[in-house]
Amino acid sequence: MSASSSRPDRANAREVEGARGKISKPSPRDGKPGLAASRGSVAASTALGMTRDALMEEFLRYLANERNASPRTLKAYRHALTGFRAENKTSWKKCVPDDFRNYLFEVMKRGQARSYVRLQFSALRTFYQFLAARKRLRHNPVREVQLPKMEKKLPLVLTRHQVDELLTAPTREPKSRSAPSWMPLRDVAIMELFYSSGLRLSELAALDVADVDPYTESVRVFGKGRKERVCPVGLPALEAIQKYRATANVHAAALFINKARRRMSARSVWLVLKRYVRRTSIPISMSPHKLRHSFATHMLDRGADLRSVQALLGHASLSSTQIYTHVTVERLKKAYADAHPRA
Predict the structure, then answer these.
(1) How would you class 103 by CB atoms within 10 Å of its CB: exposed for 0-12, middle for 13-18, buried for 19 or more?
(2) All domains of the chain in start order, with CATH
């Protein structure tokens, strides 16, 4: 599905990052959790004056310290658990499947997207897996709840012409007097790297100078669950990064900085992209993730195999990558219909 022929869909809730998986019983050698930063994140509800839930807090400490979950993941899990607790005050260990079916009904009545509903119940299911492994709970009541199926929406992707138009937008825009002279070069480097390597927004914002290796033409990123992967970087992106760094005098620490010379936040990067889209003919609302969609689809269009694209995107499951094959098939069907005399 090309961006030129589709309207923007409502943004779906993101899948919970890398915290799911097999929950093992603690080893006697594990000791007590000791990550101060994680404790701070996990204890956020206490600071907000919420009633302390001992089992939930222990579960969140487990995610932070043993599963190496990101602050964003912890926030998503906390939101899911406190959302259920706001509707149902029954003890976690005494909840039955009907409690969760009633909660599902209430959430669906609010008109929430199916992806959001599944995200909430994914967190609840993982919480009960934790209780079964660590608290000897014999039954997982969430397993018996049938969830609504995901809506199969094809991701919106840009055409190659639209990508080219977007990547050159910073060089065409008049520079603001208050902005440093290197800022347009930084913006070109950001968008070139997004499209060149298919990075997530959070991955790009977290990059340091040392993560980009011009000799091996690659970038080291930490994805969901702090999983490390190395992605190739194209020559145009490397040249854009080098030009920006030389002009902005960026030699260490954060790769992409703001005019105060501090690391750019993920939101700031998003706003950069949004600003330049308004200067193009692209008819849809753009997000950095659409550049990631475009990266994957264009790779498959040019003959890349699915497993390679999966590795480049950092997808844990091949099914997450397969959605792009449907986009490619749809494009082939359209090309066939437009070009074949007897289509």
Answers:
(1) buried
(2) 14-144 (no CATH), 160-339 (1.10.443.10)
